[in-house]
Structures are given as C-alpha cells and as structure tokens.
Amino acid sequence: MLETITKDSLFHEYYAQWIKVYKEGAIRKVTMDKYLMTYSWLRKLIPNVKICEMTRITYQQLLNDYAECHERQTTMDFHHQLKCAIIDAVDEGMITRDPTRKAIIKGKSPRDKKTKYMNQFELHTLLNHLELTPEISWDWFILLVAKTGMRFSEALALTPKDFDFPHQMLSINKTWNYKGDGGFLPTKNKSSVRKIQMDWQTVIQFSGLVRSLPEDKPIFVKTEKCVYNSTVNNILKRHCIAVDVPVISVHGLRHTHASLLLFAGVSIASVARRLGHASMTTTQKTYLHIIQELENKDIDLVMRSLSELS
Fold first, then answer.
1. Is 93 left (phi over 0), alpha (psi -120 to 50) or beta?
2. What pTM, to 2 d.p., does this model score?
3. Are residues 146 and 279 part of one domain?
C-alpha cells in the first residue's frame, strides 16, 4: 500500500512516491537512476520543504542552489525531471499554482568539451591502423561502429543471425546489458529497432568472421558480464595516439559516422533513421553545429547561383 501523501507532506517524499507510481517499470534502469539522483538532491537541498510550500520563489531557489555546482544543461535536465511531478501535484490540488512557470535556468560555465568526432581523413587514418585479425576482436568492433553508427550496447548485442549478407543489411533489435549482469535488453526506444545498410566490403569481411560462430550468441561478448566500455575506449585511444588523430570515445565514432553523412549531403531524416533517433529533432539538436555549417555553404551556393543570373 502507498503511504498517504497530503499537501503537508514533505516534497521529497511526494517525489519518491511519484517516481515509484509513474516511472518504476516504465523506463530503462539508466533513466531511472537519473530520477533517483534527482530525488537524492531534493533530500539534500530541500529536506524540510512541504508540498504546499513549493512556491515559485522556493522552486527558483532550489534551481539556483542546484545550478551552483552543475552546468546549465544538467540544471535543465533536473528541472524537467521535477516539472512533471509538480504539475501532477498542482492537478491534485496540493499546490495552488505551477511554481515551475517562467523558471530561470542557470548553471556553471561549460567545461572545455572533448573532441566528439573526426573528419574523414582522420577516420580513414585511424581505420587503416586497426589490426584486423582473422578472428573477431575489439578492433573489428571499432570498425563496425565507425561504419554503422551503432550505439555501444547495440553493437555488443549483435549475433550472427542479425547479419543479412545477401541484402547487405544489419538488424538492430536489442542491446546488451553491459552495465548490469549481462544478457539481452530491449533497445533504447522503438525507433532504435531498425535495419542498417552495410557497404560491400564490410559484408565480405564479416561474412567470413561470423560464419562458424553460434547464431544466437553475441559475437563480441566472450563472457556473460565482463564487458566495459572503458576497455574498448582505451584500445581506441591507443590507436588514435599512435596515428596522431584526435582521441575520441566509441560513442565519438557514432558522432563521426553521423557527421560524415551530413557533410556528404545525406538528409537529416535518413541520418536520424540510421542512428535510431526517436525523431529528427534529436538529430538536429545533436548536430546543430554541423547543420549550421552546411546552411552557410548553401547560402554561398545560392548567392553564386543568383549572381550568375545577371
């Protein structure tokens, strides 16, 4: 049975119950952990604030206190995770007015961002340095992620039967629980279930590599649990340093893949589908800087075309 919550209950108690009722079992563990982290910050920052005391000023001060040690985007995420619960409290009459209305999001200045992607020459240099042995290895993993833009957990979950070599297609329909106890998990969202077209060279390479492997077993996971993204990131880092290209993570290979497609003129819609984004908005937000560069090139092209008309 749920504990009775009234407007005089502590806000963090209400939020804990709201998470349990609305989020438990409905979201992935990694997302649930973020809500639980928000809850722990509520207990730290406003341990004695009651639901009925959550005014605009109280809420804004909460955001300000959180923003003192977090960047603006992180504070924005904190705000979004609280807003839905607060609106429900308003609907239930425990809070008179929505205190999140017109909230001002602050935050520390962003740290210098690490390089997220490579250009085409740098990626070509990196891939040429990989040691592509006759058996599956992490170097083959790096190559496949670079050529498909898969997420780390999606690539770990690949089995031989996910490869459709005659049609040059790769089916993404599950992930590997590398942060937990191993085993298959559903994809991040429905849009993540997709088929990715492979180039002929990759088809030839992997058709030989997986030919004798068990059809339903992950090709890159040798044990049930011991898979860490730091392991692959360290291997990737050594290759990057060896050929003097920017050091990026495995996730950076995904960014590189998308960036090269966009610069090559592939539509945002096609890139979004290939990456398994829930919507084109996600792609646009993630690669806004690249899209802006392309728009600037388009403007130059338009101006040159117009000038030739006179």
1. left
2. 0.69
3. yes
